[in-house]
């Protein structure tokens, strides 16, 4: 839902019949893994990101998403870059793997990711080794010893 977008409804009862405001929500893209085609809008996106990072103290992922998503408004010209969200079972992050896939017998058998971005867990190296053991070497027990999140 957060990867592909959803209808987020804000309820303001004092507005009477117009109390429900529907908004389209999508969580931000992780700039640790993405595919960018060499188009004029994507070059402009990266130029803007590079400029801001060279002149501001800012988090690269926040700057990337601001430049990608902020719409044009007075005093700001937005970009015309198109974006698509990849299949999160094929281009997976560690949250999806450790909280969902490893616990679902059908997904565990069916899902063969192209990449697993270990971005939700601080113990990256042991998890990466376990992921290789699981997907490359077939060790079905390799992922079991880890907690879902970063707790011990």
UniProtKB/TrEMBL annotation:
<dbReference type="GO" id="GO:0016757">
    <property type="term" value="F:glycosyltransferase activity"/>
</dbReference>
<dbReference type="InterPro" id="IPR005069">
    <property type="entry name" value="Nucl-diP-sugar_transferase"/>
</dbReference>
<dbReference type="Pfam" id="PF03407">
    <property type="entry name" value="Nucleotid_trans"/>
</dbReference>
<protein>
    <recommendedName>
        <fullName>Nucleotide-diphospho-sugar transferase domain-containing protein</fullName>
    </recommendedName>
</protein>
<dbReference type="GO" id="GO:0080147">
    <property type="term" value="P:root hair cell development"/>
</dbReference>
<dbReference type="InterPro" id="IPR044290">
    <property type="entry name" value="RRA1/2/3"/>
</dbReference>
<feature type="domain" description="Nucleotide-diphospho-sugar transferase">
    <location>
        <begin position="24"/>
        <end position="125"/>
    </location>
</feature>
């Amino acid at each position: 839902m957060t990867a592909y977008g959803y209808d987020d409804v804000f309820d303001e009862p004092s507005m009477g019949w117009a109390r429900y405001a529907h908004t389209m929500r999508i969580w931000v893209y992780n700039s640790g893994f993405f595919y960018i085609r060499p188009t004029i809008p994507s070059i402009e996106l990266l130029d803007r990101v590079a400029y801001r990072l060279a002149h501001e103290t800012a988090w690269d992922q926040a700057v990337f998403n601001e430049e990608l998503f902020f719409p044009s408004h007075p005093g700001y010209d937005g970009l015309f870059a198109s974006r698509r969200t990849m299949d999160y079972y094929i281009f997976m992050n560690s949250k999806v793997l450790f909280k969902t896939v490893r616990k679902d017998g059908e997904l565990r058998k069916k899902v063969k990711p192209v990449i697993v971005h270990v971005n939700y867990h601080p113990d990256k190296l042991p998890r990466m080794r376990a992921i290789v053991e699981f997907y490359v070497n077939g060790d079905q027990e390799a992922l079991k010893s880890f907690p879902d999140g970063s707790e011990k």
